[in-house]
Design a protein that fits this description.
Shape: elongated
Number of helices: 30
InterPro entries: TPR-like_helical_dom_sf (IPR011990), TPR_rpt (IPR019734), Ycf3 (IPR050498)
Helix content: 55-70%
Low-confidence stretches: none
CATH class of one domain: Alpha Beta
Structural class: alpha/beta
Keywords: Repeat, TPR repeat
Pfam family, one: TPR_1
Radius of gyration: 29 Å
């Protein structure tokens, strides 16, 4: 403080002393007086066109405070003064990464590393860029290279842990996070990442404790605060989750990740109209537009414009067949209200849609990409929307949902499969599906169960269990049936590609028991009585994550709480099964 005062007096007498002014700014910077530091660095930059240090420090301040456009301006000025200055090239790459200008960021970080191939911070930045580009294996190699150069740099271990998460290698991920914590036990970023690992495992209280510790270290970081909101949401504490996510949105109202979380909370508490407005934020997330074709669509979207009767409308399927089935519940209302509509769908669903929603004009359903792969064709539509954006027009309150089935299948197929099932025996026919296949392995596992978990049900008399699980599960069924169990597979039904036949099989069941997967959506849309075991809260989509044991989306589906112990869930189902069929 004495030095500052002395320097301040000197500057008053020597207003043109650039070095003294820089030192004064630097001292305020080190003391955390950021506002004063910015003011003083700016004065220095204005006094001297060649004073690059003040510009670099301004760039770093703006980078740290997430004012990335300002940071880019000053780092460019540094590079005009000191062309090919390696640390500035590295910083520019990080700023471009934060601005999501990934191709240019990758070029700059490679230039930086070429000038100094021992800069572990540059390697760490390169790994981050590659990770966001979804070049996960390349990113892994780069993070490992950074660690080889410096084994005491916690961010490289932490980011390698995130990379292993994305590569579906949770054990390796945990090792990296734990090593990062050993190196830097007070890094809020590392604590945040480790908390995310435990959240992914369904250990919400442990994750929350780590997020709270991270928040105590850096109370200004909104990502940590949003993660605290998410943890309370998964713990069913809606009051606190809303409190924290509102704080985040107040400080950063344009953050689409925050909007997405808030929409999930609002959906669960039944505030649909408000939820849909925040749900639209998903369309601005980089994860939503995952390839070149979807990027092409982005600029033609009109989800914020009102649908008018005279509009020529294109609806594009949501990601995943399950979500497409769910939102197709809105199609009958859409087609009744608007006459000039084209809908792009998964080709496997088109026969079902045509059978179920027959209109005088049958030219409604087209394979995905029929229009959206061409900019010229997209220009011919007045409105272009993803199917999930229809909810904000047609599903604003609970009474807007219909409990009636909206899909049906071929009568001849239903009869054919009925005969096949009768040839097995005359027991009650119970369909069963136990797996969900997801790109993120940890989520897929959380949403799935083991076939052996159902053994106490399958051995009950009076019931015949029918396999409705798609995927490569033949070996699993063979092993299961060796142990005096019996689960039947109807070989004539292709459960992955022939949804007409799968729907006919579902229609012949007395009951369907399933985890969260595409077949469960199809059963609900057909009106087949279904008992669905919800995933744990963090892996549960908004349509399953309900306060009660019912979802407004499907009148025939009853929900069982997946947060319970597996044995307890199956015991509850067993009791209900015997009660439903009046058996002891």
């Amino acid at each position: 403080e004495k030095a500052l005062k002395k320097l301040h007096k000197h500057i008053k007498k020597n207003d043109g002393d650039v070095q003294a002014k820089y030192n004064y700014a630097y001292m305020h910077h080190q003391l955390g007086n950021i506002k004063t530091a910015i003011q003083c660095y700016t004065e220095v930059a204005e006094l001297s066109k060649n004073q690059w240090k003040s510009r670099q420090n301004l760039a770093l301040i703006y980078l740290d405070t997430k004012q990335y456009s300002k940071a880019l301006k000053f780092i460019n000025e540094v590079l005009l003064i000191k062309e090919n200055y390696q640390p500035a090239l590295r910083d520019k790459a990080l700023i471009l990464f934060q601005l999501n200008q990934l191709d240019e960021a990758l070029i700059k970080i490679k230039e930086s590393i070429k000038l100094n191939n021992k800069d572990y911070i540059a390697y760490n930045t390169m790994g981050l860029i590659l990770l966001r580009m979804l070049k996960k294996d390349e990113a892994r190699k780069i993070f490992i290279e950074a660690i080889k150069i410096n084994k005491d740099y916690a961010p490289s271990f932490s980011n390698l842990g995130r990379c292993y998460e994305m590569l579906n290698m949770p054990e390796e991920s945990l090792k990296c996070f734990e090593q990062a914590i050993v190196i830097d036990p007070n890094s809020f970023i590392v604590l945040n990442n480790l908390a995310g690992y435990y959240l992914d495992k369904g250990l919400y209280k442990k994750g929350l404790q780590l997020y709270q510790k991270a928040n105590s270290i850096n109370a200004l970081d909104l990502t940590v605060l949003a993660n605290i909101a998410g943890s309370y949401f998964y713990l069913d504490n809606y009051e606190l989750s809303i409190k924290y996510i509102k704080q985040c949105l107040k400080k950063d109202p344009q953050n689409d990740e925050f909007k997405k979380l808030y929409s999930l909370i609002l959906f669960k508490v039944g505030e649909y109209e408000q939820a849909w407005s925040y749900h639209e934020g998903r369309l601005r997330l980089s994860t939503y537009f995952y390839n070149e074709d979807s990027q092409k669509i982005k600029k033609f979207l009109t989800h914020n414009k009102e649908l008018l009767p005279e509009n020529k409308i294109l609806i594009i399927k949501e990601q995943g067949i399950g979500d497409e089935i769910l939102f197709s519940s809105i199609y009958p209302e859409l087609l009744n209200n608007f006459k000039n509509v084209k809908i792009e769908s998964d080709p496997k669903l088109i026969p079902l849609f045509k059978k179920s929603m027959s209109m005088s004009n049958n030219n409604i359903f087209y394979p995905l990409g029929s229009f959206s792969n061409s900019e010229e064709k997209l220009k011919k539509f007045d409105r272009v929307l993803y199917a999930g954006s229809l909810g904000k027009k047609f599903r604003l309150k609970n009474s807007d949902f219909s409990s009636k089935p909206y899909l049906n299948t071929e009568d001849d197929e239903i009869k054919r499969i009925e005969n096949e099932l009768n040839n097995i025996d005359h027991n009650y026919k119970i369909g069963i599906s136990w797996k969900s296949f997801r790109k993120k392995k940890s989520i897929g596992l959380i949403k799935s169960m083991e076939l052996n978990d159902f053994q106490s049900l399958i051995n009950l008399p009076k019931f015949t269990f029918i396999n409705l699980q798609y995927g490569d599960i033949k070996k699993e069924i063979l092993e299961f049936n060796k142990n005096n169990n019996k689960i039947h597979t109807i070989e004539s039904v292709d459960m992955y590609d022939d949804l007409i036949a799968l729907a006919a099989l579902l229609k012949n069941l007395n009951l369907f028991i399933s985890t969260s997967n595409t077949t469960a959506h199809l059963a609900g849309a057909l009106g087949v009585e279904t008992w669905l075991i919800k995933p744990k809260n963090h892996a549960s989509f908004f349509y399953w994550n309900q306060v009660s044991d019912r979802t407004p989306w499907y009148g025939s589906i009853k929900l069982y709480d997946g947060n319970k112990n597996t044995d307890k869930i199956l015991e509850d189902i067993k009791i209900d099964l015997l009660k439903k069929f009046n058996l002891k």
